[in-house]
Structures are given as C-alpha cells and as structure tokens.
Amino acid sequence: MASTSSTPPNQWKTWDVFISFRGADTRYNILSHLSKALKDKQIKAFTDEELRKGEEISSELSKIIRESSISIVIFSENYADSSWCLDELVQILKCKEKSGQIVLPVFYKVDPTEVQKLTGNFRKAFAIAMHGEKGTSQKVDNWKRALKEVSNLSGWDLQEIKYESILVEEIANDVLKKFSYMPKSDDSYDRKLIGIKSRVEKVEWLLKDKQVVGIWGMGGVGKTTIALEVLHRNKNQFTGHYFAENVRETMKNESSRSVRTEIIRQLLGDKHVDGLNDHVFKRLKSMKVLLIFDDVEDRNHLKDLAGDCDLYGEGSRIIITSRDSLGLSEEDRYEVEKLSDSQGLELFSLHAFEQNRPKEEYKELSNKATNYAGGNPLALKILGSHLFNMHIEEWESELEKLKVEPLEKIQAVLKTSYDGLGDKDKDIFLDIACFFKGQNKDEVERILEALVSFQKVEYLA
C-alpha cells in the first residue's frame, strides 16, 4: 500500500528471492516468465536447477535459502512428488520461523485446498515422495507440516487471476513493494531525503515510551516519508508490521471491518482469518507489532482499524500521520517542521540541477523559487522538476507566472489541507489569506485574539 523503491536494498542478503519449483511443471512457463519479471525490476532471484544433484539438498543450497530475503514457492500438480522440493520447503519454513523470512506461495494449476489438505492429484504426487523415503517417518511429518503451514500463507492462485501474465506481474510488483518495507542494513539515508535523519530520530524518541505516536503537519511536508523511514529502520524489532496508506480515501470506499480483517491477515500471515475471535485474539496478543496508519482524517477510523492497544502484545506501537493533531497531546505527537532555507535550497537543487547546490548563474533565481515553496518538501521537488533543463529566460518567465497562478500540482497538494479544515477554520484561513497577507505574525495573532475575545463577550451578552 505504500510507495515502492526501484531497487531493493539487498546489501545484507546474497539473494533477494529464492524460487522453489517443480521443473517439469513450470520450467518453460511461469518460472521463466517470473524470473524475467523479477530481473527487469533489478531483483536478484535464484532458481536451484544447477544445484539439484544427489538425493538431498546440499549445504550450499541451504545457505542460499537462508541468505535470501524472500522465498517464492510455486505449488504445481507434481510439486509434492519431489523429495527435493519438499526438503526445500522444510528449509524455507525454518527460515520463516527463525529469521522472519517472507514466504509467498503461488498455486499454479493446482487447487489450494488440495495442497492444504493433501487431497486429489496433489495427494497422489505426495504418495510418490513418501514411497521413495527410506528413512524415519519424521521427515514425512516435516514435509506434511511444511506443506500445511506454507500453503496457508497469503499468496496467489492462478484460478482466481486467470491470466498468467497478470499473475506474474502481480507477484513481481508485490515483491518489489515488500522490499520497500524492509529494514535498512546501515545508518545511511537516501541523499535526496534532505533533513530526514533528525525528523526520524524525533519520532523514534517518542516511540520509546509512547504506544500511539502522531506525525502531523500540512500536506507535502513529508509525514509519509518519515513514517516509511521509521518503518524501514525499526521493522526488525517487531514480530509483525503493517503500513496502511491513504486511510482517508480508503475509508470512503471500504468498510472498516474489511480493512481491519486484511490488517490482521497480513500480521498473522494467514489469509483464512475472517475477523476477531478468541483464537485470533490470542495470536495477536502474542505479537509485538508496529502499525502505521497514513493520512488519517478521523480518529474514530483509528479505533475501528487498529482496535485498542491491548489487543496486541507488550511493546507494540501505533504511528498515525495526519494533517490534524487528532486530539493527541503535544507529548504524543511530532509536528513536522518545514525545511530550513539551506535545506530547501539543497532539495530544490537536487531536482532542478541533479546536484546539491544551484549552478552559479541560477543562484538568485533558485533562491526565489525556494522562497516561493516555503520549505515544503513536495512543493520544492515539484518546482525543481518543473524547471529542470530550462534556460534562464524560461526560469524568469515561469517564476513570474507563479506570482499570478501557482503550479497545478502544488495547488492540489495545498488544497487537500484546506479541504480537510472545518467550516470555521476555513473562514479563519481565508480571512488571514485575504486581509493579513504580508503582515507581521505577532500583530495578526493579537488582532485575532482580540476578535475571539470580542465574540465571546458578544455571545455572553
């Protein structure tokens, strides 16, 4: 549900994705298409055909599975007749349970219930592997458990999607999205996220002893970016996490029950959950989770979607981003400040010149553009990108136009903040914009406070 990065952060893993598959069923169709789709998105995927030698998976292959961030298991009709595939599956489940590896099942021309309950043709395939197993029944029991656990995770079913091309694209996009949520391996920040470090640290400081933390401020100021960075850097401290984006829009189109159910399914990794019951409550209570609700307009939505904090295990945290303080005390929220003049100029320059300072002949115009954006990161990025590759004469013309009519994209961002105000606050905003433009802030506050006092006296009279 969040913005994705174009290149997954894989510094701490040898491989991004490990794919477990039955070659005879998948080699020339879904496997080849999926491998290409992942490669096109700069995702390193390992397929194990070269290492399939002997009767048991090698220590080298086990190491590759452990060092992959995500495992994709393609369940096909004959997957279970291969003891090799089943041994891989057992190893994948161990990685999920021990290190939190993400595991994604894909049901390719096989019904999920056949895998989950070992029935139909899938059972016949499994019987072949069982017949070839000469050891103890412990290995067979491990196979059965791995099949049941992994097939019950949230994944994809070709029967529901119909078209293989769409299935492959959905899988590749979801994998890329999951990488955008993964914790970073060092303390570095994207060089284009100007001023992000201190802002993230302020939120992290609040999270030390606050169950619910608010990040609030005007549209475009960077609330979502901060929340995502906090998630990236702290995800590995929690047993479950969820990022709910665009809550304000989502709640206009979906019921709170359906959204809440999806959150619980993702936290538990169980697509069969259909609401809260004693068993689900017990499972959630055992988890330390990090929940982020982005762009919340109504605090009641938070109650509907997240429930009470005591629904989750000790140490769980909830982060809200909003254009409003939502009634949170000053101690429980962080108001995102605008960028300083120097930070604003640096961010603008990165998008206008692809360097962190303006070109010499553009310095004066760059300062004007930066002042126009008023320290709003999104406005700075939009304006910088708009002016990129323009000549000085074009810059002068564009900046003159902005005095009369703002850029449509910037206008849209600011309008969402205005639209979210109540009627009284809209009137105050328009009064300030129309009658006090350019006046001293302290003087304007004094006049407005006097007006409020007068209105109270008039009301009492």
Structure characterization notes:
- The chain has 22 helices and ten strands.
- With about 450 residues, the protein is of the alpha/beta class.
- The chain has four domains: about 15-175, 3-Layer(aba) Sandwich (Rossmann fold); about 185-335, Rossmann fold (3-Layer(aba) Sandwich), CATH 3.40.50.300; about 340-415; about 420-460.
What are the key terms here?
461 residues; alpha/beta; Rossmann fold; 4 domains; five-stranded parallel β-sheet; 22 helices; 10 strands; disordered N terminus; disordered C terminus
Provide the fold topology.
Blueprint: E1 15-20, H1 23-26, H2 30-40, E2 45-47, H3 59-66, E3 68-75, H4 83-99, E4 102-107, H5 112-117, H6 120-132, H7 137-151, E5 156-157, H8 158-161, H9 164-181, H10 196-207, E6 212-216, H11 223-234, E7 240-244, H12 247-253, H13 256-268, H14 278-285, E8 289-293, H15 299-306, E9 317-322, E10 333-335, H16 341-352, H17 363-373, H18 377-387, H19 392-404, H20 408-419, H21 423-435, H22 441-460
Parallel strand pairs: 1-2, 1-3, 3-4, 4-5, 6-9, 6-10, 7-8, 8-9
